[in-house]
Amino acid sequence: MIALTHFRDGSPDFRQRADAALTALAARPGYLRGSLARSTDEPDAWVLLTEWENVGSYRRALGNYEVKLRATPLMAGALPLPGAFETLLDVGPDGTSVAHDSDRVDRR
Description:
- The protein is an alpha+beta fold and about 110 residues long.
- The protein has a single domain, classed as Alpha-Beta Plaits.
- About 30% of the residues lie in helices and about 30% in strands.
- The strands form 2 sheets. A 4-stranded antiparallel sheet has the order 2-3-1-4.
- β5 (about 90) and β6 form a beta hairpin.
- The chain is globular.
- It starts with a strand and ends in a 9-residue tail after the last strand.
């Protein structure tokens, strides 16, 4: 699963605070990779992208003390947008695609 968190922050220390948050998240079980990116058009627009083995590992990471200490203050400034997404399709550079089943329960 991926977690995508959007920010609007022009403060000069944002990148350092995000680095500390990403480092704390990276130390948690189930973490696969992460990136901090800034908009090429709007310098105060940022996204923090992390990829996890599953939603459980992501949620457990958020409860960790170091993550609460380093990442929660940063996340408090996140824009109110959906942030956790399950991966349903991967397409490699060669065009090969792999479909994944959803973990969602259909609640009709």
